[in-house]
Amino acid sequence: MKMKCVLSCLAGLLAALSLSAQTRPQTEPRLTVGGYGEAAFSANFYSDNVYRYSSAGAHAGERHSRVDIPHAVIYLGYDFGHGWTMQTEIEFEHTGTGAAVEKEFEEAGEWETEIEKGGEVELEQFWIQKSFHPALNLRMGHIIVPVGGLNNAHEPLNYFTVYRSEGEYTILPSTWHDTGISLWGRAGDWRYEALAVAGLDAYLFNTENFVKYGAGSPYEFKVANQLGFAARIDNYSVAGLRLSLSGFYGRAMDNSYPYEAIAETSRYYGVKGRTAIGAFDFEYKGKRFVARGNADYGSVGDAYTISYMKRNRSANNSPYKKSDVGRAAVAAGVEMGYDILPWLSRRADGKKLFAFGRYEYYNSYIPDEGSPRADWTQKHRIALGFNYLPVPEIAIKAEYSYRFLPAAYNPEPSISLGVCYMAFFRR
User: Fold this and answer.
1) Which run of H or E residues covers position 319?
2) CA 135 to CA 364: how far, in whole Å?
3) Can you say how many angstroms the Cα of residue 84 is from the centroid of all Cα atoms in its chain?
4) 382 Cβ partners below 8 Å, 6+ apart?
5) Which of 19, 58, 291, 298 could be joined to 277 by an S-S link, Cβ 3.0–4.6 Å?
6) CA dihedral 46, 48, 50, 51 (to 10 degrees)
7) Cβ–Cβ under 8 Å, residues 180 and 143
8) Alpha-carbon separation of residue 373 from 152, 304, 327, 367, 370 (angstroms)
9) pLDDT tens digit string along 200-246?
10) Which of 70, 277, 65 is nearest to 161 (CA)?
11) How far is the C-alpha of 241 from the C-alpha of 243, rounded, in Å?
12) What is the pLDDT of residues 54-98, one digit of tens each?
C-alpha cells in the first residue's frame, strides 16, 4: 500500500513537471543556428623532432612554425515544444580530413589512394532533451562530459590564450564527448549534472597524454563493455563568480575490441584499470577584470600491469598505444586579464583590449612503482599577451609563451597569433 502511494505521488509530480514544461511560453525562433571557429599561427623556437627529449642536445636551437584551423564548429538546435529540444554540434578540427585516388605515372600508371589532408570531422554533440522543470532536465544521446574547466567551457572566447589551456588539454579528453544519459538542472545559485556514458579504454592511454585518447575509438562504434560515471556541480552565490567541482569514475580495462574475458587462472585476472578524475575550476568576470583557474588530478589503478599488457598483448598493427601509462597525472593553471582600453581611449564603444597572463603546471605521467621515468612530461608554462575584441563575438589574440622543462631538456618558447569568433546567428 505504501509503495503504491509513493508511485502515485511520483507519477503526479512528473505529470505536474511535464505540464509546467508544456505550458511555458514558446520562445522564438524555434531554430537556433550558431558556432565558433579559430585560426592560428605559431612560431615555435624549439625542435619538432620526435627525439627532441631523448636526444635533447642534438636538437638544441632548432625551430619550426605552423598555421592551423584548430576548430571550426556549427551548432544546430531546435525546440519542438512541450519541453522537447534537440542540439547537434559538428566540429572540423584542423580543416577536416581528405583523401583522393590518383594515377601514379612514376609507378607504371598504378592507381593509388593518397591522404590529401590530415584532420578530423566529428559529431561532438547529438542529443534530445526533455525539460520537466529548470531544476530537472533529461538529456539523451551524444553529449559533452563537463569534467574540468576546459570541457565545460571550450569555446575560444572562454580563454585568453591562442590555443586551449595546455594542462587540461594534454591529460584529459578534449573536448570530451560521449554517448549516454545526463540528468541536470539549476535551482537558485546551484547547477548540477550527473552523467552515465561509455567508459574509457585503457589501451588508448599513454605516457604523453595520460587518459586523453581513452574516450575515443578507432572503430565505427564505441566499445561500451564498461560504463563511466561523471558529475559536476556549479555555484553562483557571489555575483560574477562561478565555483565548480567535477569528477569521473569508471573501469578502463575490458573496454577494448575484441572483448577477451581474462580467465581466473591468468596473471592478469582482477586487473580493472579503475580510473578516477577530480577537478576544481572557477571563473570570475567583473566589469574590466576576468580570472579563471583549474586544478585537476587523475589516477589509474593497475598502471604498471596495464603498461605491460599494452606492450606485450597488442599486435604491431593494432590501433592501441604501446607506451607506458602513469599511475597519476596532474594539471593546474590560472589566467587573469584586465581591459586596458579605457586607459588608452575615452571612446571604447563596446570594444575591449585585455592584457593577460597565464601560468600552468602539468605532468601527464607520474610513474607507478617499477615503471620507467619520463621527466620530460613535467612542464611549467607562462603566457603573456593581448586579446582585442572589436565586437563581443570576435577576438584577435597575440601571445608570447615559454614552456619550462627539467634542466636536461631544452626550453620551448613560442609566439602565437590568432583570430576567433563565437556567436549565435539566429536566436
Assistant:
1) none
2) 37
3) 27
4) 357, 358, 359, 401, 402, 404
5) 298
6) -30
7) yes
8) 32, 12, 12, 6, 9
9) 999 999 999 999 999 988 888 899 999 999 999 999 999 999 999 99
10) 70
11) 7
12) 899 999 999 999 999 999 999 999 999 999 999 999 999 998 887
Rounded (10°) CA dihedral 308, 312, 316, 322:
0
This prediction's pTM? 0.89
Query: Locate cell 589516477: which residue?
Result: 299
Q: Looking at this protein, which amino acid is placed at residue 259? A: Y
Provide the sign of the torsion angle of the four alpha carbons 262, 263, 269, 274, taken in this order.
Answer: positive
On the CB side of 61, CA atoms within 13 Å amount to 2
Give me the count of residues in the chain.
427
The shares of helix, strand and coil residues in the chain, as percent rounded to the nearest 5, are 15, 50, 35
Q: What single letter denotes the amino acid at residue 289?
A: F
d(CA 176, CA 274): 18
